[in-house]
Amino acid sequence: MKYAQHGEFSLHWQGDVLVARYTGTWNELASTNLHATAKQMWAAGLPAPAWGLLSDVREWGGGTPQALELWWEFFEDCVQHGLLAVSDVVPSPMLKLVLSPLAKRASALAHYHRGDNIEDALQWLASQGLRTG
């Protein structure tokens, strides 16, 4: 059965930081497409052997359990491709609660920070030795 992607994302490099912006409510296809897009970017070349991830979920509405598990596979692959540190920007108390199990798992694999805003997240990533501009 074919179905459409629910939710959107954008990815771009900002120095040594992969900025990921998530919007809408995600199904599995959104996570699968995120991972496929990241793989294409990694194949084109990483900016540095160790890099960071800024996950901006200010406009994200959550996702299905399957979407979250597939997002976790993306994160594990990030680590395999040199991810050093990740900072999430999560303003919603509800999303903080939903994402807390993933945040705990992420902190076991990479330096982890939850930023209050984009500037805070970038500043923390810079403190980890990453170029953010």
UniProtKB/TrEMBL annotation:
Highest taxon of source: Bacteria
Name the UniProt record assigns to this protein: STAS/SEC14 domain-containing protein
